[in-house]
Amino acid sequence: MREADRWYRSLRWQLHRTLEEIFVAPTADERRRRVLVLLNPKSGSGDAREVFNMHVTPVLNEAEVPYDLYVTKHSNFAIEFMSTRCLDAWCCVVAVGGDGLFHEIVNGLLQRQDWAHVLPHLALGIIPCGSGNGLARSIAHCYNEPYFSKPVLGAALTVISGRSSPMDVVRVQLQNRSLYSFLSIGWGLISDVDIESERIRLLGYQRFTIWTLYRLVNLRTYNG
């Protein structure tokens, strides 16, 4: 036990030193900057809030990372928040949800007039609580880390470690607006399955398989 405690205190000290470099703002008083957490309570099977409280909050508290939690109240809440709020108090935005919530965060940021000034000083992270979690899996693959064993814990540790990597964004120009994609762009069957399976999201990731089979039986055709 003494040896384990010694290792624990040593690793915690090293982590705290790293976090001080990450979460301290470059201001005269060196005040600590905070993490903005946006949580979608309806992500995945609807247990994002419970997952955050049980598995993510202890990690943030143990690492002494200050954060502000906002729970989304409706669709496009994150777009409105990220496009209109002053973000100077935060050095990182963490989405607790699925790829849809992260999509709103990215599009909200890029709707800002000052996006070119904000983005270089704002890291983005994700805690996978959605149905597909494609981005979280990509991040785990990028760092050669296991995903399926403990994806939430692994993502939380990645967030507090401060590691980051560049991310490509695709701009899609529609007739009356622009959209930004960070993962993939779907059309036709793929979009039908993704959007229409929302009505059975309580089934988690299995909703995609079930609705794919349903839509194949009731196949639509599109002109393109």
TrEMBL record:
Pfam families: DAGK_cat. One of its GO terms (biological process) is regulation of apoptotic process. Residues 30-176 form the DAGKc domain. It is found in: Endomembrane system. GO terms for cellular component: cytoplasm; endomembrane system; membrane. Keywords: ATP-binding, Kinase, Membrane, Nucleotide-binding, Transferase. It is an enzyme of class 2 (transferase). PANTHER family: LD11247P-RELATED (PTHR12358:SF112), SPHINGOSINE KINASE (PTHR12358). This is sphingosine kinase. It comes from Drosophila rhopaloa (Fruit fly). The lineage of its organism: Eukaryota, Metazoa, Ecdysozoa, Arthropoda, Hexapoda. The gene is LOC108053728.
